Amino acid sequence: ATADIGLVGLAVMGENLVLNLESRGFTVAVHNRTVARIDDFLAGRAQGRRILGGRSAEEFVALLKKPRAIMIMVRAGSAVDDTIELFTPYLEPGDILIDGGNSHYLDTERRASRLADRGLLFVGTGVSGGEEGALNGPSVMPGGHEAAWPHVGPMLQAIAARTPDGTPCCDWVGAGGAGHFVKMVHNGIEYADMQMIGEAYHLMRDVLGLSAPEMSDVFARWNTGRLGSYLIEITANILAKTDDVTGLPLVDLILDTAGQKGTGKWTSEAALTLGVPAATIAEAVFARAISALKDERVAASRVLEGPATSFEGDKDAFLADLELALYASKICSYAQGFALMGGAAREYGWRLDFGRIAHLWREGCIIRAVFLDDIHEAYMEEPRLPSLLLAPFFQRATSEASAAWRRVVSRAVLSGVPVPAFSSALSYFDAYRSAKLPANLLQAQRDYFGAHQYERTDAPRGQFFHTDWTGEGGVTASSTYNV
Ligand code: NBP
């Protein structure tokens, strides 16, 4: 046995991770369900490298040094269970299985505990950065059985991206499904980031009437400042690209219906399940869903009227406002994502280090951004921040952006341009900074129709009251549990 690690699943991510591992000095054994893919890989990109093919499960396992470490890069879902079942008969206690796909964190929890019964160490790791990241340095978010970390940590850290100060964007996240949870939240934040960039683009296009090349220049300028990030950079590039055939901006020829693979939905479901407000992330998922209703929208556009407005203000001033609105909205979606990880840590008993997580995302992944350094610093200063919004740096940032943010959302509303992420972020901010919300009325309504009881401002918390609102109700109250 000569291979340091094995990898199963030679699709785009798997192949690139193998090449990355090999380039860092590791010998890698590979396997794929469709065996022809192994031969193609060995004869192609893997040629002349320390990459060995195992055509059967038994042959593959025999190539691995002990303790064996097998990384699984197959489609999330039952394919992961099939792959685990295929290899476990050949493994021994202490061997390590690493699922590097986008698995649901609850599946990872289940697999980790089932494999622990057989003495196998299971690691569920998020791997972000797409094809290019996998090859040159992804962000890696491993969690599961910590006993696996001393063995797999050096390999995963060797292939990971690095922050500007040289720290690998890979560190142990926590037990069970913690790694996959953090990766899921990364993707939820990515949905929100992309939606917000889309809203800024929509406003520039339909309110200011800018052309694609003009917008490309704006995004390129923004990329040099506080919004500096991979997604802003590629947006500038995308808007500059022309179609080979028509010579028109390619973006104008792309149908406005967004696809999704489910990780944004999972993030929103987790937020609902854990009771953590993450509406901006959920709005980004719903925005993709409404974009998919193309035919309905086209029909509706002919009958549902919007406002007739034209922009007569100062375009540069509006663009300056827009940059701040995007920045402040982004702060809110990250605050929601980090709060969601906090909720999960409490629920599942994970000890998550948020400052470290911000740095795991600093490079190598789709949401990489200079702004993550500020989040990192905020949590290093105060690891127990209840919300990112309360960090002094972000208090100042939202305060400086507040007026511009409100002008942009107002302008969008008056112009009939949908800004679900900007406006939900602003509502989140306003709700979070409100000492008094209207939920007193809501509790009264619940007590009125369902005897759900309420707490009083002039009585200790936890003491519940019921009122016979109509004079016709009884004194029996419902129980006060919350779900
Ligand atoms: P895919 O998600 O397209 O999966 C293809 C691989 O899964 C092939 O190797 C295929 O084998 C294997 N497979 C399938 Br499908 N069903 C199987 C089964 N029942 N048993 C064994 N193998 C099975 O590949 P990918 O795009 O490289 O992504 C791999 C993982 O990484 C996914 O979980 C994905 O969500 C995640 N991810 C992807 C990206 C990205 O940018 N693409 C980024 C980050 C994470 P075959 O060749 O025999 O069909």
From TrEMBL:
This is 6-phosphogluconate dehydrogenase, decarboxylating. Homodimer. Belongs to the 6-phosphogluconate dehydrogenase family. Catalyzes the oxidative decarboxylation of 6-phosphogluconate to ribulose 5-phosphate and CO(2), with concomitant reduction of NADP to NADPH. The keyword NADP applies. It comes from the Bacteria. Keywords: Gluconate utilization, NADP, Oxidoreductase, Pentose shunt. Residues 179-470 form the 6-phosphogluconate dehydrogenase C-terminal domain. Pathway: Carbohydrate degradation; pentose phosphate pathway; D-ribulose 5-phosphate from D-glucose 6-phosphate (oxidative stage): step 3/3. The active site is at residues 183, 190. GO terms for molecular function: NADP binding; phosphogluconate dehydrogenase (decarboxylating) activity. Substrate binds at residues 102, 128-130, 186-187, 191, 261, 288, 446, 452. Coiled coil: none annotated. Its EC number is 1.1.1.44. Signal peptide: none annotated. GO terms for biological process: D-gluconate metabolic process; pentose-phosphate shunt. NADP(+) binds at residues 9-14, 32-34, 74-76, 102.
